[in-house]
Specification:
The chain has one domain: Alpha-Beta Complex (tRNA-splicing ligase RtcB), CATH 3.90.1860. The chain is about 30% helix and about 30% strand. The chain is built from 9 helices and 17 strands. The strands form 4 sheets. A 7-stranded antiparallel beta sheet has the order 10-5-7-6-17-15-14. A 5-stranded mixed beta sheet has the order 1-2-3-12-11. Strands 4-9-8 form a 3-stranded antiparallel beta sheet. The mean pLDDT is about 95.
Length: about 375
C-alpha cells in the first residue's frame, strides 16, 4: 500500500472511534483503488474490514469489504391484526413454542426441507467446489435462521399493528463463496486481497455473490412464510406482503455517484438512496425503525444496518448477568429457558439504537417506530 494514497473519509458517529477501529479504517483508506470510505454510527471491529462501512472503488473488488454473510439483511412485513393479541402469556407461549419447531437455527434434525425457488436452485456456480458445498450443506440450510444476532421478532407499531421482522443471511454459502474467491484474489497489503472486476475471477465472484444475495432474500421470505403458518394457527392472522420492506447490508453493487460509476461495497451498511425503504433493527430489547433514504452522496447513499455491537461477545458474557438480561428484557416475550446463552445478545451489549438514528439524520428519514413484543433466536 502507498502512504501517498489516502481515500476521503466521511463519518457519522455517536462516539469517537477506538484505536483498533480507527487503525482498521486507516488501512482501508490506503488500499489500492479505494476512493471513498463512509463510516456509519453502528461501526465496530470485525475481521479485515470493520462492520458499518461503505467503500467505493472504480475497478477493484474487495470480498473482505462485503464479508462472509453475503446478502444478510432484514425483511419486515405487517400482519392483519393487532399486537394486543399477544398480551396473553399463554398465547405468546404457544407462538414461541411453535416458532422453535417451524424456524430451525441450523440444518440438523430437520424433518422437512423446503425447496428453494428456481432463481436459487437453478444457479450454475463458478466452480464445482462451490456446487459441492451447495449440494452437501446449502440446500439443507435453506429456511434456517442462523445464530448470533440473527432473529425473528414480532413488533408493534404506533397504531398497534403487529409486524414481523426477520434478520438472516446466506448461511454457510456466503462464507464458502467469500473464502473460495479470496484464495484467487491478489494480496494488496495489510491482509487485504482484491479482484479485478473486469476479469474472469472478478466476474465469477460478482456472479456468485449476486446469487448469495438472492439466496439470503429467499431464505428470509421462506422463514416469514413458515412464521405466518404459526401465527395463523394461533392468532388467525395473515401477512400483508404488499407492504413488505426488504433490505440487505452485506453486498457490492455498481452504482452511479455524481459523475463516477463506483463499485460500492457495504459491510454492515444498507443502501439508502433517496426514497429507498429500509428496516433498522435495534437490539432484542430496543425499538426498531422503518426508514427511507435521503440519498446522501458523502455516505455513498448508505445507512447504518442496526445498533452495532458495543461489547464483544466475550465481554458481554463476562459482564452481563442473567439477572441483568432479565431486567433488560422486561415486558418482552422470549424463551426464558435460554436466558443464560442469550447474555452475549443482551441489549446492553449493543449501542443505543436511538443514538444511532440521531447520528444519521441526514442519511435516512424515520417513517415508523416499532417496539419489540416477542423475540425468537435459534439455538
Amino acid at each position: 500500500m502507498s502512504d501517498e494514497h489516502l481515500a476521503p473519509l466521511h463519518t457519522w458517529l455517536i462516539a469517537p472511534l477506538d484505536s483498533e477501529v480507527r487503525d482498521a479504517i486507516e488501512r482501508l483508506r490506503r488500499a489500492p483503488d479505494v476512493g471513498h470510505v463512509a463510516v456509519m454510527p453502528d461501526v465496530h471491529l470485525a475481521a479485515d474490514v470493520c462492520v458499518g462501512v461503505a467503500v467505493g472503488t472504480t475497478h477493484l473488488i474487495y470480498p473482505q469489504a462485503v464479508g462472509g454473510d453475503i446478502g444478510c439483511g432484514i425483511l419486515a412485513v405487517p400482519f392483519d391484526t393487532g399486537a394486543d393479541r399477544l398480551a396473553d402469556p399463554g398465547t405468546a407461549g404457544r407462538v414461541l413454542a411453535r416458532l422453535a419447531r417451524a424456524v430451525p437455527a441450523r440444518r440438523w434434525n430437520r424433518k422437512l426441507v423446503p425447496t428453494p425457488p428456481p432463481e436459487v436452485a437453478d444457479y450454475a456456480f463458478s466452480h464445482p467446489e462451490l456446487e459441492a458445498v451447495w449440494l452437501r450443506h446449502g440446500v439443507l440450510e435453506f429456511a434456517t435462521l442462523g445464530s448470533g444476532n440473527h432473529f425473528c421478532e414480532l413488533q408493534e407499531d404506533a397504531e398497534g399493528r403487529l409486524w414481523l421482522m426477520v434478520h438472516s443471511g446466506s448461511r454457510g454459502m456466503g462464507p464458502a463463496i467469500r473464502d473460495y474467491h479470496l484464495q484467487r484474489a491478489q494480496p494488496v497489503g495489510a491482509g487485504l486481497r482484491a479482484l479485478e472486476a473486469s476479469d474472469e475471477r472478478g466476474h465469477a465472484y460478482l456472479q456468485d455473490a449476486g446469487w448469495a444475495r438472492r439466496f439470503a432474500a429467499a431464505n428470509r421470505a421462506q422463514i416469514a412464510e413458515n412464521i405466518a403458518v404459526v401465527v395463523g394457527a394461533v392468532l388467525g392472522a395473515r401477512l400483508q406482503w404488499e407492504q413488505a420492506i426488504t433490505s440487505d447490508h452485506n453486498h457490492v453493487l455498481k452504482e452511479a455517484h455524481g459523475d463516477a460509476c463506483l463499485w460500492v461495497h457495504r459491510k454492515g451498511a444498507m443502501g439508502a438512496a433517496k426514497g429507498q425503504w429500509g428496516a433498522l433493527p435495534g437490539s432484542m430489547g430496543a425499538a426498531s425503525f422503518h426508514v427511507q433514504g435521503r440519498g446522501c452522496g458523502d455516505a455513498l447513499c448508505s445507512s447504518a444496518h442496526g445498533a452495532g455491537r458495543l461489547m464483544s461477545r466475550t465481554e458481554a458474557r463476562r459482564g452481563v448477568s442473567v439477572a441483568a438480561l432479565r431486567r433488560q428484557m422486561s415486558g418482552i416475550w422470549y424463551d426464558y429457558r435460554h436466558v443464560d446463552r442469550l447474555r452475549d445478545e443482551a441489549p446492553s451489549a449493543y449501542k443505543d439504537i436511538r443514538a444511532v438514528v440521531r447520528a444519521q439524520r441526514d442519511l435516512v428519514k424515520v417513517m415508523r417506530v416499532l417496539r419489540p413484543v416477542l423475540n425468537y433466536k435459534g439455538d
